[in-house]
Amino acid sequence: MKRTIIKNASAIVSCDSKDRVYKDCDILIQGPEIMEIGKGLADPDAEIISAQGKFIYPGLVNTHHHFFQTFARNLMAVDYPNITVIQWLDEIYEIFKMIDSDAIYYSSLAAMTDLIKHGCTTAFDHQYCFPNTTDKKLVDRQMEAASLLGIRFHAGRGANTLPREKGSTIPSSMLETTDEFLSDCERLIDLYHNPAPFSMSQIVIAPCQPVNCYKETFIESAALGRDKSVLLHTHLGEGENELMVQRWGKRTLDWCEEIGFIGEDVWYAHGWELLPQEYKTMADSKTGLSHCPAPATLGGFPIIDIPGMRRAGMKLSLGCDGSATNDSSNLLDSLRMAYLMQCFHSKERGGSPSPYQMLKMASIEGAKMMGRNDFGSLAEGKAADLFMVDVSRLEMAGTTHDPANLLARAGVTGEVYLTMINGKVVFKEGELTGIDEKHLFNAAEKACNSSIRDRCAVYGKNIL
């Protein structure tokens, strides 16, 4: 099995249980696994990677995204600062319903590439758009893209089942039945879900959101997930509570608790509508929350109270969210944004998380939320998922005395020097390993533009 030694790292920020920061040390890797961290490590048969002048961090873990939205970036006609999330969904689905297999593949490649170049090694994607104009094998195309790039991928198979005439925002061409949805979940689990250590692919059952699905969709999703021992995910607390109260006489979290879509095997995205008394429900049930700062900021929505949630004992992680409400897949940028927004509210909330605490939220805590104990920190026995930042550049002078707090505090949001996933270098010094980026860019532009420009004219100025 291949052995690699990363030599002479100026600092290794482990994010381990002891919060160790190693100075001037090496990392010995065998296959996908970290074997040892220490000084002067040697192996005559190992490949040597120099980390002189570099800080090394655990790979970032993105716990909420919608890769398919990458083809709908920078469309100001469907921006949403002055409308509600529900109103925005009503407009944007007129674009989303046009996706096809190639758009899924190339938009996933674009999003994954952005993540990799900015230090992300594990990505969860919530793919909930399955138009009846294309086949069901859209998650399969995402798996194809992930395999090409070498990223660790957890695929959320989502769905929308409630018709517009019953109160949803979903065009009829995008509706699935609960049976269709769950049948495809089973197919994907059988094909791709690997629960073994260092697994590169897993499946999550992820009905899109309670306001756009029948109750039975959520009930049966939870039953299937527990039968198959896979995790569950959905949107919650993202502007839908008023509709849920009108429809069911209760808030979304109460609704999820009543039907059993809550617990240690569940995490939600967003949660900016959660009330302080609901933090305890989340904590007591061990349900996780993926914080996505970019869409909340873009839409002018409340910024979650991380100190209050921490005091209640909630599990938290970090997500980019879909590119239609972020316009990038740069988790370092989301890390910086999340930190600054917490600082903005620090006086009223009794403090804010440190930059290092936010880094742990974006790494080890995200891994644990997705049921993974085999990565997220740099330690013996963990996967060699990591990235390097070159701190020997002039603009970094004056920042290097505190490696643990560097990223969010100093705004290190550009491309990293190197990204390694499962012991393999997938990106280094501006180049994806073994990938013809120019060729893929041209193919992606063609696929994405045909999904928008060539087929949106019918919707007129409301779309473009």
Automatic annotation (TrEMBL):
CDD domains: ATZ_TRZ_like. Residues 55-426 form the Amidohydrolase-related domain. InterPro entries: Amidohydro-rel (IPR006680), Metal-dep_hydrolase_composite (IPR011059), Metal_Hydrolase (IPR032466), MTA/SAH_deaminase (IPR050287). Transmembrane segments: none annotated. Keywords: Hydrolase. GO terms for molecular function: hydrolase activity, acting on carbon-nitrogen (but not peptide) bonds. The keyword Hydrolase applies. This is Amidohydrolase.
